[in-house]
Amino acid sequence: RISNFGNSTSSGLRGGIMGDRRGGQAESRPDRLWSPSDLSAFLIIPEKTLREWRYKGYGPPWRKLGKHVRYEPDAVKSWFDQLTSEADVA
After folding, report:
1. Which of 41, 60, 63, 89 has the most Cβ atoms closer than 10 angstroms to its Cβ?
2. Mean pLDDT score, 48-58
3. CB-based burial of residue 47 (10 Å sphere; 0-12 exposed, 13-18 middle, 19+ buried)?
4. Res. 27 pLDDT band, cuts 50 70 90
């Protein structure tokens, strides 16, 4: 049997956190990493802003896998919660 390895549309990797383009549910695996596009949709900010943040050393922690930038959802949520906590203290 031939697998569909490498076909991102069937693997769920391109579905994003808001659901895939075919109207299905978002990938719910806890180990799934977010792309800049996924994070942009989650934070409702442009991808360009994320690029600028990475360049300036600001924003949620990220990793580079080859030429691809990825974010861990739990780390993003912790970063976001920390921003809220710091605003409450100030």
Report:
1. 60
2. 98
3. middle
4. low
